[in-house]
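for the recovery benchmark. tokens below, seq after
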């Protein structure tokens, strides 16, 4: 009988994952320390947001702070977060999923998937949102990792003849989680980036690993 539960191999403490997490943590740690007043740059977060956040208005005629900002913001937003809790939640997810991705497509594949998901997360936000507030966070990339993982689960279940119901149930749970977080945060959740990242992750996995034998 085909297995109902699917367990994927993982690579523990992959340098690519650890370095990415460390580099992503650095800005928020610096900004959090700055806000204590001990370092003398309490307003640094505003500067980082001005230069690095995703501003939807820049796609609607706003003047950029520097040349190329409407392009670079599609990537720089993922290096900033709205606080330590926001950062920790995203980085725990990257650590949990990164090893699975590295085991499937290697360290370079992981980094490429992450970058693609960051971009498609921003694309989702650009297409579906018209908010004037800045958008930050690596959750688009996180949902890209989830998207690839779920594609591989579908792939393996199809190959083994395992039931698909647990997969669909997990996807429904993911959607419900987004709705709950959106309500708890009074609408201040970039679900558009989550959706864009997820779709990007699924498409990346489908193109890069169309069968179980493909590992790029």
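predicted aa per position
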């Amino acid at each position: 009988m085909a297995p109902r539960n699917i367990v994927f191999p993982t690579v523990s403490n992959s340098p690519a994952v650890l370095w990415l997490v460390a580099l992503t943590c650095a800005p928020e740690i610096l900004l959090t320390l700055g806000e204590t007043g001990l370092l003398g740059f309490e307003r640094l977060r505003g500067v980082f947001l001005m230069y690095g956040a995703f501003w939807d208005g820049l796609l609607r005629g706003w003047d950029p702070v520097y040349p190329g900002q409407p392009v670079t913001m599609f990537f720089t937003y993922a290096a900033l977060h709205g606080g330590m809790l926001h950062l920790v939640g995203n980085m725990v997810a990257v650590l949990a999923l990164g090893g699975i991705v590295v085991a499937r497509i290697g360290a370079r594949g992981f980094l490429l998937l992450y970058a693609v998901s960051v971009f498609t997360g921003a694309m989702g936000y650009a297409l579906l949102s018209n908010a004037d507030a800045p958008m930050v966070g690596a959750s688009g990339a996180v949902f890209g990792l989830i998207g690839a993982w779920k594609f591989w689960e579908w792939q393996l279940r199809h190959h083994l003849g395992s039931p698909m119901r647990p997969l669909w149930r997990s996807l429904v749970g993911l959607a419900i989680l987004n709705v709950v977080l959106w309500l708890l945060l009074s609408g201040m959740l970039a679900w558009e980036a989550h959706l864009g990242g997820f779709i990007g992750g699924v498409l990346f996995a489908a193109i890069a690993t169309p069968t179980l034998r493909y590992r790029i």
